[in-house]
Amino acid sequence: MSDNLFASYRARVVEALARIVPDLPAEVAARVEVTPTRDPAHGDMATNAALLAAKPARRRPAEIAAALAAELAGSDGVAAAVPAGPGFVNITLEPATLRGVLPAVLRAGAGYGDGAAGQGVMVNVEYVSANPTGPMHVGHCRGAVVGDALANLLTKAGFGVVKEYYVNDAGAQVAALAWATYWRYLQALGTPTGESDFVALVPGGLQYRGEYLVPVGAALADAHGASLAGPDGRPAAVPVWFDTVREFALGWMLRMIREDLLQLGVTHDVFTSEREILARGAADEAIARLDAAGLLYEGVLEPPKGKVMADWEARPQTLFRATRFGDDVDRPLRKSDGSNTYFANDIGYHGDKIARGASVVVDVLGADHGGYVSRMRSAVAAIAPFYAPGRPVAFEAVLCQIVHVIQNGQPVRMSKRAGTFVTLRDLLDEVGRDAVRFTMLTRKPDAQMEFDLDLAVAQTRDNPVFYVQYAHARCRSVLRAAAEMPGLGPVTREALAQVPLDSLDAEAELALLRRLAHWPRLVEAAALAREPHRIAFYLNDLAGDFHMLWNRGRDDATLRFLQAGQPESTRARLALVEGTATVIRSGLAVLGVEPVEEMR
RNA sequence: GGACCCGUAGCUCAGCUGGAUAGAGCGUCGCCCUCCGAAGGCGAAGGCCGAAGGUUCGAAUCCUUUCGGGUCCGCCA
Fold first, then answer.
1. Between these two residues, A493 and A301, which has the higher pLDDT value?
2. Beta bridge partner(s), residue A166
3. Using the CA of A85, which nucleotide's C1' is the nearest one?
4. Mean pLDDT, chain A, whole residue set
5. Of chain A residues 221-260, which have a beta carbon within 7 Å of strand B?
6. What pLDDT score was predicted for residue A85?
7. Pairing with A303, which of A39, A41, A346, A371 sits 20 to 30 Å away (CA)?
8. Does at least one atom of strand B sit less than 7 Å from the CB of A417?
9. Residue A536 CA to nucleotide B36 C1', Å?
């Protein structure tokens, strides 16, 4: 958009290049970049255009760079354009051009940086999707935050986004939940039942013995009395109670999860139930279509090597030819008893997402699902033509690696079985939503991370949450003080957007303006790379620029924002402060973190 | 046996999809408060980007091989 200084100068570069190399292939022109320079000595932006054009034009890069520099030097708002290095052209902007971003920021407000890069393409982002069998723990938290921030980021970049939660309410896990809840129910009725009474009965063993089901059992007893139990409070026949207990427990777990998510500030547009998807026949339909396309066969899989499988025996299963779509083995769709595998159901579900309009299907998954990605990608490639004829559909996975929680320099031991795992609620109580969210987003998702509880609440420089919020609070502090100053006039965003800015010429001020100019470009790049953590790093840098400028004012009184008796330059600086605060708020909004007014 | 992710400063991590002299915080050392918030800032030291080949104008980034760490590989979801 026109707010994006780099995009508009890129357009000029491409135009100028076309005059120098008239028959430049379009695919080469498409690779032209205009990027911020790393070294201020290289000016404000640099382009690789001459390097790219050299080969097809059969001319030396330096020669094209010189010609390009000459073209650009006369361009509006450009102070200098010089060839450099192996064939770059470095562009130095007029200070007035940099100052021009400020009114753009102030007029657009939170919308500054909103882009059209997404072109309205429909993206379905599925995240969290924790089994509805217990409270959320820290393991779920990273995916929740990453997915939520990614969805916000994509929206900001102009994609059409659906945030989705897939409720796995159909499998054996949920049956186990029902049994465990029933056990707690009988205990609530006063029946002396130990674990041993249930371990043998429950499919997969008594998996969910955590305390969190005690109130569920009690509530069930309140709602249904003894009507679900047999004589003397002994277990009744399964059909008597099973459906009732399962629904009750599922509803309870889902409410609990949604409350946890709400505490974390995570919301979804759509909750999709696996059972409803199955009842609608989605999996069967997908299987039938794959079959009709000749992509299924009955076969026998090799046993996995390097893994001990004592009870392995070869048996024929219905297999999907995933290898035709790049997977390394074909994948089973049916268990030996003929029922669908989870994968088969998931194919049906992904078909449903595509049928609902998604052209990009993003699954935010835990690292333990890494082996699942290639098979799902092949499945989507196989079924997309059925659900979206003629429309390209991409499957993407964002894998979130494990989070180790650290306290007092020691790893916090977690065991789900022992019930000592750290719940999401514990974490939020300990460090707060903003710190959890920001900290989780200061690493790229596919790197393992250590979450240091002490650092997340520290009020120091090395805690990026604090550092960024402190910068915002300082901005607000200056603006509050300005509102009390006589003779300044209104200092609202709207008023400051009109203010003359010529007095902004200190190096630290220009550095801050450059940073603000990067924001739209950064949003676009982060969205296209599906990397919300880049927003967090940008904010850290922006806060750094602001803190530096602030401290310059400590050393040199003429650089302070508020100058008594000089309303004009003071207003210009307030515009810069307000612009900084605006972009910080905008970035924090993507991350789902609250800006703070003051930190006393 | 195979697939995917990660190896970058003593530590925790960035590096904008191939660009110029590889960056930040912590830690270490030295500076800056009669002054809009010092809960900050400035400076110094610290690196052959796990290793070896390759691709090209140019590689931490792409390819191959290899060594470490993690995750996974039919009837869990």
1. A493
2. A272
3. B20
4. 91
5. none
6. 85
7. A346
8. no
9. 27
